[in-house]
């Protein structure tokens, strides 16, 4: 009979009976996520202890074999315990006998759990980065197909200026590039080893912290032993970065929902839902859930910060309640990223509807004012000419419309208050406004072909070729730079994966030299 059979863990045997708070204290179920991490940390620690002459090669061999056995039995085979660290140690002692108890020499669960969390979070963050990179690749592909697809651009949700689908989508790709950088930057600080800090006060054993760091693929140390046990800012910044990513995605989702509502795009059936009662409905539920995921991550960030606020040094059990927030947030956003990418890449853009809507609300007004200003008219005066023509258009529309006959502001305002109208003033109206404001015929200021171009949404877009603008050549240049940044991020990801894989190989090699 093993200690496992009588359901008594080693650590608990004398001091901890469990009692009514047993379940409450335990993180064992949630620790499944760090089961593999804990085994890796145990291996690295045992190898280091052996190399330092702190434990014998014979004991190391027995412990490392037991760990392999525990690994193949899986997390679910662990005996009941306070947490995975205790349960694995118990399982090792069950197999090895008292010598198995040497595994926990010169460390504590405090540095151990911190090492496990960092070890696991590294993998998770790389998975998130990979998913974001895939989404960015998809967005750049869609953008390349739609660099000439004209669409309305909005401010305050009002038609503002025409732009292109590529320009709109690349705005999200650029935000995702920064989200990627935040995740990669957080990774650098996650990737530091707290192991060897012990409970918080170091150890009298002649340990080699750099060696365990190396065997676990960490880039450096969380040197101060109190800091090593206490620090959870790596969870905070990761969760903040995932929350920022979720916020980016929520804006994208909102735009797509709006575009679907206006018939600018049609979501693929597999990214839409229908109604249980209204047979005609096709709802953008996936995007609504992407938008909703921001609630998960924001909640997690708040939960995490609230848990950590005011905790004294060094280890306090509250920290056990910090961890799940980070897992929840990162899982939620990674899934949402994947779904958002799928929804965008499979949506059909309704190009004729987009083109027809692109000029709505006299959205070419700024381009016309720019044209006059480029011909030498001060921009404010040009603005006035265009505003007046817009007002005249509106007055004419209202005069002929019985339903709008009571609008008294028309004609008195300089604002282009045409958002609720759907069209653009004629060249004649612009000419009349120019005569009044400039005191000279419009034709002496700009030629009519240029004016027609400015009044046309596609023509308007083609003139806005400043860096970062929507004109197709400017977009082509932007896409090139965006691909370059994406490639750089891909390389960073590959290098990080390789470093982890190298450490894994190195550790396995050392382990196999003892077993
Ligand atoms: N399950 C614990 C956690 O997640 C591990 C550390 C326990 N340390 C302790 N001193 N009780 O934080």
Attribute tags:
Fumarase C, Chain A, domain 2, 20 helices, 3 domains, 515 residues, two-stranded parallel sheet, binds arginine, two-stranded antiparallel sheet, Fumarase C, Chain B, domain 1, disordered N terminus, mainly alpha
Task: Explain the layout of strands and helices.
Layout: H1 12-15, H2 22-25, H3 35-51, H4 57-73, H5 84-96, H6 109-145, E1 150-155, E2 158-164, H7 165-190, E3 192-193, H8 209-215, E4 220-221, H9 225-230, H10 233-261, E5 265-266, H11 285-308, H12 319-346, E6 348-349, H13 351-358, H14 365-374, H15 379-399, H16 427-438, H17 442-445, H18 448-455, H19 457-463, H20 472-512
Parallel strand pairs: 3-4
Antiparallel strand pairs: 1-2, 5-6
Helix pairs in contact: 3-4, 3-6, 3-8, 3-20, 4-5, 6-7, 6-12, 6-20, 7-10, 7-20, 10-11, 10-12, 11-12, 14-15, 14-18, 15-16, 18-19
Bound molecules: arginine.
Could you write a compact summary of the structure shown?
The protein is mostly helical. The chain has 20 helices and 6 strands. Arginine (ARG) binds at residues 27, 83, 85, 109-110, 113, 315, 317, 319-320, 323.
